Amino acid sequence: MTHTPKYLTTRQLARMWLVSEATIKRWADAGHLHFTRTVGGHRRFSYEDATRFQTERGLGPTSTAKRRAAATTTTVKPAARVRASVFARLAKEFFDAITDGREEVAATILLNAFLKGVEPAKMFDEALAVAMKRVGKLWHEGEMSVADEHVATGVAVRAVEALGSAVRREHAEVPLAVCCALEDEWHSLAVLCAQVLLESEGWTVKNLGPHTPFFALSDALEKYRPALVCVSSSAHRSLERSAREYEQFRKAAQAHGARIVLGGEGFRDEAIRRRFPADLHADNFRDLLKFIHQQFPRTQA
Ligand code: B12
Description:
Layout lengths: L6 E3 H8 L3 H9 L6 E2 L5 E4 H10 L4 H11 L7 H21 L3 H13 L4 H21 L5 H22 L8 E7 L6 H12 L3 E9 L1 H11 L3 E5 L6 H18 L2 E5 L6 H6 L4 E3 L2 H11 L6
Helix pairs in contact: 1-2, 3-6, 3-8, 5-6, 5-7, 5-8, 6-8, 7-8, 7-13, 8-9, 10-11
The structure holds cobalamin (B12).
The site of cobalamin (B12) has 34 residues, from helix 7, helix 8, helix 9, strand 6 and strand 7.
């Protein structure tokens, strides 16, 4: 069984952020970085507080990775192989946690990965989605009950929400995105992941959630004037109707200057992509991340 410690030590944080232990203590004692003390008087930092501080200070994944690279004098590691095994382990630990119903452990796994420099986009594509596919397979093969599948998904949702509240950045002026899943679509996790990914990149997000008809999305265009709209679908219940309503929505989005990103299995097929033209047909969250970096470079920290 996975055992994930609840707190981080001064030394662990110093190693993660490539600063001295004295710096961590100074930040903590100045009240910037919240901590508690052990009985023996040692400082302990929760994952949530450490993650929030990392985000606020721009010590986030990208900068951490860059600083690590700068601090390393050795040549390039066999990154692809190392990364693959890291993600495989992450996916397994996350799967174990959600199928055991261990909310705190599941959240800590995501927060810990973020602290270690894993971008949310990669975390979602290569660990969370992989774990969820395994859940889906077991359910499909009758090896997991519907009840257990629901519990596991609920735990996964709350873990992503916990990550979201820790990585959200407060900015005075930020671009706004609207995210949702299509009408009759009850898979909500991918939309939530899109929200957290965008928030970690400094966006404000209105998540309309699952089962959102196109007319409601058009209303949201009027109300929020988003720069970006992200829509997820796992399958179309009525393709003709959906394509018709999409066309109206797309015209409204163009009139408002909003870009459209479509993702999920429901938009994977090339023929469907032609019927649903968009600024991006995303295969995964890395595609979305790349797209916003290219299209909205000013939002980068
Ligand atoms: C959890 C789950 C449910 C839960 C959802 C609860 C919730 N709150 O979300 C419940 C129990 C409600 C459910 C219901 C159903 N489900 Co279901 N479900 C799943 C499961 C196990 C996980 C889905 C998930 O959250 N994945 C996590 C996300 C992050 O990953 P992802 O969906 O793979 O998305 C990736 C990409 O597609 C992309 N992406 C997706 N959307 C977006 C959006 C944007 C903007 C971007 C950039 C990227 C992107 O990025 C992700 C990461 O790379 C999958 C199993 C699987 N193989 O995926 C089945 C699965 C999706 N479900 C399936 C089915 C059949 C159903 C039901 C029809 C079952 C039924 N008979 O009632 C209903 C449909 C309900 C409805 N009308 O929507 C099938 C879908 C097959 C298909 N394409 O038609 C799957 C694949 C299971 C299977 N093996 O058959 N399900």
